[in-house]
Inverse folding.
């Protein structure tokens, strides 16, 4: 990736060159739509294809988007110069203004500035985070790791019952000491608290990380950096349902929204640890199955047909078994076997036997 | 509050006494319904009234609830003895079993075990947290405070960009050093990151704390302990909308669900810092007002009629102004005045002038 500030300046200079040469100012942006997304079988990631669109300043259909992209670029450049970060919502308010002598606002909805930010990511080959624009912060981490962040040394093994709160932007964190051998990422904060109270990360020399529900980009990047810079495998612990499976899918293969960021956002080392259909049988969770609603079945059928799952026999088997059950199950169903069953039996056994899906 | 384990044992002994005396086992539980809730004008909190209901083991309509309460009591006693904590969802799975020789489950839905836990809080005069049952974890904190938790010393001023992640249960945290003079609690994690990046807590010698959306019980208790044990005023920073106002309302006056926990859950020292109707005018946010939907107006009218707001002139004035605007505004609208306007101008000015609602 190029340096974001320089890339923004380069973009500006190109436009000025067009203007001074009496040419129409234009930007060339890769098309972000399903039609231009391919699944790269070699790297196992969703990627943007080569189709691009031109955005011309003098085209009435383009000029507003043109302006929005430039306004967002100006905001990002200021943030980079000031060394400050803004949230997506902040950027919306910062570019929202009425164009003089008109009743037209630069943006009316946040989706417009969000879109412009995605375009800017492509135009500058820099992630939003490197443009100093952050999404929401969420999640906690604990484990045998020491980091340095904003001049503070932070020991993830000495964070009491709370853990370190994961920021929205982890680009500038330095890893000082990484003793842990792997990472368990789980979709539920309550499960994280269970493992943390049982000192699972201490006994197993690992890192435990969670958000609540969907994985934030801060968490995704933190997992990605631990995987890439420290070669740690990432084990995903999610509910046995189409949404839990999809959390893994996005982490591992990427998503349509992230296709232009495939390199910095996908996790080849990710493995799905559970809950699997086989776990349901093996660990006696059958009576805690929750019957499917129509929406669950629909989502499951979508997963089954995704290109990156289509030829994956292990996953297709899971989908089929879930279809037979017509039911889902939660991680916490393991608590029916005892409050620390997950820590003492389930996880150590699964990890020792490398009983993963990939 | 009595010691929870002893209180559970006491409850059990009373029931055994009934059985041995050939009397019907029964429990007396205060009624948790709007009809039994009063607003205590002296303490400014919502409280449970004196109406109680008897729960009799031999009454068909009562026996299931009776059993559920006892099962939850047994789970809590085991947790207390093992020194472990469980989430509400865990407890649901731990009490969910089929009664032998029947097709009846002790609980079918989590609402049933949640209800039983609330009954147990009343029967033992102990909060859920003291019964070692936790809700979900959320939120971050930073500031001039050092705590001790689980043997770790944690300095909230040395937590990098992430902050300390607030656990679901803060009962056993020890405050070692509290230099901060007040707390700002905000409903949005993105605003917290803004203040944190600007080192607001350092410049102003305070604590900044946030969740995302609704305030968790962990955060509420942490605020309450800082207010009670260290006499820190709590300033609430929320959106200018009925939901933002209600966040303050629950923190300050309590809620129907929390009426039985009024003492440990309400915050008399809370003040509403903003966003107020006057801020909209004073700080030039009018063009960032977002027009009300029907649901907003309905909610606003509910607030207007709450007993604890009815005679509060300052709040009634806010409600009236919001009604005139027919619109709401977000904290982040301040970013339209500059990314650090909130840190450099808005907050210092409001706090210096004690421009609060209470």
């Amino acid at each position: 990736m190029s340096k974001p500030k320089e890339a923004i300046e380069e973009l500006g200079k190109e436009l000025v060159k067009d203007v001074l040469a009496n040419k129409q100012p234009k930007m060339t942006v890769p098309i972000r739509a399903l039609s231009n997304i391919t699944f790269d079988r070699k790297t196992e990631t969703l990627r943007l294809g080569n189709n691009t669109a031109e955005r011309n300043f003098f085209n009435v259909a383009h000029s507003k988007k043109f302006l929005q992209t430039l306004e967002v670029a100006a905001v990002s450049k200021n943030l980079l110069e000031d060394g400050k970060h803004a949230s997506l919502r902040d950027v919306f308010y910062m570019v929202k203004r009425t164009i003089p002598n008109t009743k037209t606002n630069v943006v009316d909805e946040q989706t417009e500035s969000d879109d412009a930010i995605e375009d800017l990511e492509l135009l500058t080959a820099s992630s939003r985070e490197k443009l100093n624009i952050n999404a929401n912060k969420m999640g906690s981490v604990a484990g045998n790791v020491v980091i340095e962040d904003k001049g503070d040394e932070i020991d993830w093994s000495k964070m009491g019952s709370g853990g370190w709160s994961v920021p929205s932007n982890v680009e500038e964190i330095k890893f000082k000491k990484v003793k842990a051998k792997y990472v368990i990422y789980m979709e539920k904060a309550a499960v994280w608290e269970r493992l943390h109270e049982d000192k699972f990360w201490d006994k197993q020399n690992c890192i435990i990380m969670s958000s609540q529900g969907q994985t934030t980009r801060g968490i995704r990047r933190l997992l990605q950096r631990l995987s890439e810079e420290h070669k740690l495998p990432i084990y995903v612990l999610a509910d046995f349902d189409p949404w839990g499976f999809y959390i893994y899918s996005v982490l591992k293969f990427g998503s349509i929204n992230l296709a232009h960021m495939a390199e910095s956002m996908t996790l080849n080392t990710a493995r799905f640890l559970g809950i699997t259909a086989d776990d349901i049988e093996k660990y006696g969770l059958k009576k805690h199955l929750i019957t499917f609603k129509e929406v669950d079945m629909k989502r499951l059928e979508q997963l089954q047909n995704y290109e990156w799952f289509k030829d994956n026999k292990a996953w297709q088997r899971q989908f089929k078994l879930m279809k037979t059950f017509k039911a889902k199950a939660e991680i916490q169903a393991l608590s029916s076997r005892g409050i620390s069953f997950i820590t003492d039996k389930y996880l150590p056994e699964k990890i020792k036997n490398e009983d993963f899906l990939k």
Summary: DSSP finds 14 helices and 17 strands in chain A. Residues 227 and 233 of chain A are 6 Å apart (CA to CA). The two ends of chain A are 28 Å apart (CA to CA).
